[in-house]
Specification:
EC 6.1.1.-, protein biosynthesis, three-stranded parallel sheet, alpha/beta, Rossmann fold, globular, 290 residues, glutamate-tRNA ligase activity, 10 helices
C-alpha cells in the first residue's frame, strides 16, 4: 500500500517501560513532538510494553511524569501494547495461513551454532533448520508441548511482496523533517526474523507495524539504531496491506565515553537530573532544543 501521507500528520513517541527515561529518550521525544507541531499535526504517546517480564507499571507512571515535566502534552487515551495481543495474534495467524510464518524449535545455542552470517544488529542470522521441517513433524512437536516461536520465511515473503522502497526524510538542523525521498530496502539481510516470540504472541517488529497503522501514524521518528529494522517493517506493511509512513532516523545521544545511553548500563535518568536541580530548559539546551 502507498504512503499514509493523505492523512493529517501524526507522529508517535513510543517508549518501553522497562526503566527510567534518560537524555536519549528526551531527545527523541522533543524531536517527535516538535516535528509534529512543525508539520501542523499531532504527536501521540504509545507505551510499548510487550515484554511483560521486564516492563513495570511504575516505569509507565514515570514516563508520564517525565514527559509532563518536559512540558509535553499528548491526546488521550494512550495506546498500551499489552492490551493489543489479540490483534497481534490475529495478524500472525493470517501470515501463517499464507505459509509465511513457520514454527521454530531451535534454542539460542543452536541458532548461534548453525549461523554462518550475522544480521544487521550483529546477532547470528538464522540458518533455517526448522524451515525445512515437514508439517507433520511440526504438528507433533507443538502437540508435545515443545517450546517454539514463529519466524518469517524471508524468501517467501520477498517472493510475494518484493523489496518495498522506504520513504525516508532527513532530519534538518532545526529538527524539522525534510521532504521524503525513496531508498532501497534489503530485508533479506535479516534472514528469517522472529515475528512471534515464545513467551508472547508478537514481537517488536510486528507490534510496531500494526500499531502504526492502527493509529494512523504518518511519520516515524526514531534512533539510528533502528534504521536497518525499517527493511523488515516496510516488508510487513506490504504483506499486511498497510500504509508506509515516512521514516526519519536521528543520531543517538552518547555519554562522555561515546557510548550510547542505555537503561541497561545505568545511564543517568531524567529523574536523576531533576533531583540534581536540572530544569526542563536545561534539558532542552543540553540537547540542542534551546
Amino acid at each position: 500500500m502507498a504512503s499514509s501521507l493523505a492523512h493529517r500528520p501524526r507522529l508517535r513517541f513510543a517508549p518501553s517501560p522497562n526503566g527510567r527515561l534518560h537524555l536519549g529518550h528526551a531527545f527523541s521525544a522533543l524531536l517527535t513532538f516538535g516535528a509534529a507541531e512543525a508539520l501542523g499535526g499531532e504527536a501521540l504517546l504509545r507505551i510499548e510494553d510487550i515484554d511483560i517480564s521486564r516492563c513495570k507499571p511504575e516505569f509507565t507512571r514515570a514516563i508520564f511524569e517525565d514527559l509532563a515535566w518536559l512540558g509535553l502534552r499528548w491526546p488521550e487515551p494512550v495506546l498500551v501494547q499489552s492490551t493489543r495481543f489479540a490483534a497481534y495474534r490475529a495478524a500472525a495467524e493470517a501470515l501463517e495461513r499464507r505459509g509465511l510464518l513457520y514454527p521454530c524449535f531451535c534454542s539460542r545455542r543452536e541458532v548461534a551454532a548453525d549461523a554462518t552470517h550475522v544480521d544487521p544488529d550483529g546477532g547470528p542470522r538464522y540458518g533455517g533448520r526448522c524451515r525445512h521441517l515437514a508439517q507433520g513433524d511440526r504438528d507433533r512437536a507443538i502437540a508435545a508441548g515443545a517450546p517454539h516461536l514463529f519466524r518469517l520465511d524471508m524468501a517467501r515473503a520477498i517472493a510475494e511482496a518484493g523489496r518495498p522502497e522506504i520513504p525516508e526524510a532527513e532530519i534538518l538542523p532545526d529538527h524539522r523533517l525534510g521532504s521524503p525521498t525513496l531508498r532501497a530496502s534489503d530485508p533479506a539481510r535479516w534472514g528469517d526474523v522472529v515475528l512471534v516470540r515464545r513467551d508472547i504472541p508478537t514481537s517488536y517488529h510486528l507490534a510496531a507495524v500494526l500499531d502504526d497503522a492502527h493509529q494512523g501514524i504518518t511519520h516515524v521518528t526514531r534512533g539510528a539504531d533502528l534504521l536497518a529494522a525499517t527493511d523488515i517493517h516496510v516488508l510487513l506493511q506490504r504483506l499486511l496491506d498497510l500504509p508506509h509512513p515516512v521514516y526519519a532516523h536521528h543520531g543517538l545521544v552518547r555519554d562522555a565515553g561515546a557510548e550510547k545511553l542505555a537503561k541497561s548500563r545505568g545511564s543517568e535518568s531524567l529523574a536523576d537530573l531533576r533531583a540534581r536541580g536540572w530544569t526542563p530548559a536545561d534539558i532542552r539546551a543540553r540537547l540542542g532544543f534551546g
